Amino acid sequence: MRQLFFLFIFTSTLLLAGCGSKQYEVTTKGGDIYTAKGALNYDVQSETYSFENEQGLGVRLNQEDIEVIQEKK
């Protein structure tokens, strides 16, 4: 019974952790669409947004090239 309780707690924790990370869809003026895992970082000096895509690769886009950023539901 105790093992079942700990298994339930562990599974619940994993499910809640998965729900906590937001994804954003970034559409460029050229029509390219990127999905960002987590929040985007904005660099004021270079006027760029950087983020990690679904494959775990780093992406950097100029602010002027971005049409819209919206949270995926």
Automatic annotation (TrEMBL):
Residues 23-71 form the Lipoprotein YgdI/YgdR-like SH3-like domain. Pfam families: DUF903. The keyword Lipoprotein applies. The keyword DNA-binding does not apply. SUPFAM superfamilies: Sm-like ribonucleoproteins. Keywords: Cell membrane, Lipoprotein, Membrane, Palmitate, Signal. Residues 1-17 form the signal peptide. This is Lipoprotein YgdI/YgdR-like SH3-like domain-containing protein. The lineage of its organism: Bacteria, Pseudomonadati, Thermodesulfobacteriota, Desulfovibrionia, Desulfovibrionales.
